[in-house]
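Appendix C: a fully annotated inverse folding record. The material below is reproduced so that readers can follow the format used throughout the book. The structure is listed first as tokens, followed by the designed sequence.
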């Protein structure tokens, strides 16, 4: 179940954000929820690490790499960065 959160912002900021939300077809609460979700996702280290592993896995698959040749793939990447 959702709970309420009360925050205080300057009236001018609230008005600007409300206008932006309305332009996107959202209400202020929807926009704030999206911003908070994005904020926590971007700063959640486990999510960041999971994303990196997903990207590594996709990259290996796209380059037809398997567990058998991961060490060789690592060496190739490291040699490009030297």
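Designed amino acids, in order:
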């Amino acid at each position: 179940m959702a709970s309420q959160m009360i925050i205080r912002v300057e009236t001018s900021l609230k008005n600007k954000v409300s206008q932006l939300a309305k332009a996107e077809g959202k209400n202020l609460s929807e926009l704030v929820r999206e911003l908070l979700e994005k904020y926590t996702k971007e700063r959640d280290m486990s999510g960041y690490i999971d994303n990196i592993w997903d990207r590594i896995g996709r990259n290996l698959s796209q380059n037809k790499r398997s567990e058998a040749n991961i060490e060789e793939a690592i060496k190739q990447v490291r040699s490009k960065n030297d």
